[in-house]
Amino acid sequence: MNDIDALWLRRLDLNNMVALHALLSTRSVSESARRLCLGQPAVSHLLKQLREQLQDPLLCRHGQGMMPTPFAEALLPELEAWLGAGERLFRQRQTELDKVERTVRLALPDPLEAALLPGLLKACREQAPGLSVDVAALSSAQALAALESAQIDYAVGYFPYPTPRLERQTLLRNGFACLYHRDQLQLPPEVGAGEVAAWPHVYTSYTGEAVSLIDHYLQRHGLQRRILVRTASLLAIPPILVAVPALAVLPAAVCAIIGRHHAGIASARIDEPSLQLDVELLWHPRVNQDLVHQFVRAALTGQCADGRLGAASGTAA
């Protein structure tokens, strides 16, 4: 507010306002000392300071006790309201979840939306019904920049580079699988590098990287794949696989999600244990102590704790 006299407030010892409230409420130095856990001489000294700062006696001797001045009587209800407002202001982190009205902003690729959002929204409905979720599909680089600038609160996906200014937590580790349609191809439950390279690929990448983990894997075996088509959308993959004999190499959990919603789509796991992808949750440390954000992180990580979650990032595969 523009009408706050900051210089005057600096001269006023705001720490003494709690003592002033105790004195005016109890009308007793000894009782105020007990309430404030201070000695009586210390409280008497505070009363002297307050009288000088406020230029009013505040409390005057009356028989065996003390009586407030008219100024002090008028001050007490205002002071109580002011201290109560200050306590509520600085205890906001203790707000009950069921009374929160807020939006949490997430960066999630398509398959993560399908895997994580139902569980998160269910937890919100049960514990924080006033919490809404806003989701954006961003590349890894875009998500990191958005976190740094506070445009989003969380990013979930594959982030292979160090992020020293951000917090991060691994949600799950994923192997890779080949997605295909049974009417076009017949593959065993597990395939090696030769079978992966034998068929044309439908290629998708949310990161926009030209070289992927799978390309490196094939190169180690002296092989390379032929890209039939590059697409930015996972939604295009099933219709393409229905139409042509091709495969799409994706994180195994993504394949499981797509397979559950498209008849005839199957997957074959790549038999390379070292071929793993970490799905991570990233956030800015400024929200570490916020109650709402603690709830969101617990809801997201809880879904992955048992390893059954069908989710993964939209990295190049």
Automatic annotation (TrEMBL):
Belongs to the LysR transcriptional regulatory family. CDD domains: PBP2_Nitroaromatics_like (cd08417). SUPFAM superfamilies: Periplasmic binding protein-like II, Winged helix' DNA-binding domain. Residues 12-69 form the HTH lysR-type domain. Keywords: DNA-binding, Membrane, Transcription, Transcription regulation, Transmembrane, Transmembrane helix. The chain crosses the membrane at residues 234-259. It comes from the Bacteria. InterPro entries: LysR-type_TF (IPR050389), LysR_HTH_N (IPR000847), LysR_subst-bd (IPR005119), WH-like_DNA-bd_sf (IPR036388), WH_DNA-bd_sf (IPR036390), YidZ_PBP2 (IPR037402). This is LysR family transcriptional regulator. It holds the Pfam family HTH_1. The keyword Cytoplasm does not apply.
